[in-house]
Amino acid sequence: MKKKITAMLLSVVMAVSLTACGSGSGAGKEKDTNISSELTYDHSMELTYAEEFSVDYYNDGYALATVADDGRYLIVPEGKEAPDDLAKDIIVLKQPLTNIYLVASAVMDMFVSIDALDSIRFSSQKEDGWYIEAAKQEMEAGNIIYAGKYSAPDYEQILSENCELAIENTMISHTPEVKEQLEKFGVPVLTDHSSYEKNPLGRTEWVKLYGLLTGHEAQADKAFAEEKAAFEEVKNSVADEADQEPKTVAFFYISSNGQANVRKSADYLPKM
Questions:
Q1: How far is the C-alpha of 138 from the C-alpha of 149, rounded, in Å?
Q2: For residues 221 and 208, is the Cβ–Cβ distance under 8 A?
Q3: Which of 27, 43, 120, 125 could make an S-S bridge to 47, C-beta 3.0–4.6 Å?
Q4: Predicted TM-score (pTM) of this structure
Q5: Cα separations (Å) of 40 from 33, 34, 60, 199, 202?
Q6: How far apart are the C-alpha atoms of 183 and 97, rounded to whole Å?
Q7: d(CA 198, CA 268)
Q8: For the segment 115-151, what is each residue's pLDDT rounded down to a tens digit?
Q9: What sign has the CA pseudo-torsion 203, 120, 66, 45?
Q10: Nearest CA to 67 among 218, 215, 271, 213?
Q11: For residue 253, which phi and psi values (nearest 5 degrees)?
């Protein structure tokens, strides 16, 4: 297989057995799509596994992304303006989105898979902290620069280059003052909730959201389809071996202080 978003989940993945996956609720929930007198709802993004975000499409290329427990984001096409009558809770993101401050390191592989690294300008990890080679190369070239960790960003540097979006992980909830400060300076904040997805492919399907934000939706659909196909291949191979001795795996890691930590059986990695 070519580049895999699975690297976002962990550098090494053990595939043992796969549970059947139903339709996610991310695109299926009933909701109020009337957000402006200037925008007419057209359709919603098709999501099969992800439940922590949804996307509604409107006329003239507008789209509303809703992230569970985080907020609503109106993606405004290049050359257009946001309607004046939007609700105050809707955050406006104007395309093209560049100079992104990427704190959610698990998302980096998704940006690589859709060829959207040029949208990222700032990283919360230093060059030697990346296991993704493309990220290291971009930092070596100076195209992505270190701008401080999630709890202590370099505000001056971020503002000096007109950062247009900060993509945080859920750790930001431990330092809400950082989120407040970024928003006070006019930097929109989106918190990645892919780690809350119950299904492994639900995590992977978040690539569609980042494809939308960066204008790489076709690449995102292709990347997700390839990953889904890889899952199906393993699933089918396990089914073919149903008459053989069942296989089990103990998934654990050793922490820096020498303790063994075992993943819960309901976690996404054991499910894989």
A1: 18
A2: yes
A3: 27
A4: 0.82
A5: 9, 8, 9, 32, 28
A6: 16
A7: 6
A8: 999 999 999 999 999 999 999 999 999 999 999 999 9
A9: negative
A10: 213
A11: -140, 160
> At a CB cut-off of 8 Å and minimum separation 6, what does 174 contact?
151
Query: How many Å is the maximal CA-CA distance in the chain?
Result: 64
**pLDDT, position 20:** 35
Indicate the burial class of 254 (C-beta count within 10 angstroms; 0-12, 13-18, 19 or more): exposed
Q: Which two tokens stand for residue 144?
A: 């992505």
Who contacts 37 (Cβ-Cβ below 8 Å, separation ≥6)? 83, 85
Give pLDDT tens digits for 60-74. Answer: 999 999 998 789 999
3-state secondary structure the chain: CCCCCHHHHCCCCCCCCCCCCCCCCCCCCCCCCCCCCCCCEEEECCCCCCCCEEEEEEHHHCEEEEECCCEEEEEECCCCCCCCCCCCCEEEEECCCCCEEECCHHHHHHHHHCCCHHHEEEECCCHHHCCCHHHHHHHHCCCCEECCCCCCCCHHHHHHCCCCEEEECHHHHHCHHHHHHHHHCCCCEEECCHHHCCCHHHHHCCHHHHHHHHCCHHHHHHHHHHHHHHHHHHHHHHHHCCCCCCCCCCCEEECCCCCEEECCCCCHHHHC
The residues, any chain, with a CB within 8 Å of residue 33's CB and separated by 6 or more, are 41, 56, 64
**Residue 22 in this model has a pLDDT that exceeds 80:** no
CA angle 130, 228, 207 (to 5 degrees): 45
Distance, CA of 163 to CA of 175 (rounded, Å): 20
Instruction: Examine the pLDDT at 13 and tell me if it is beyond 60.
Output: no
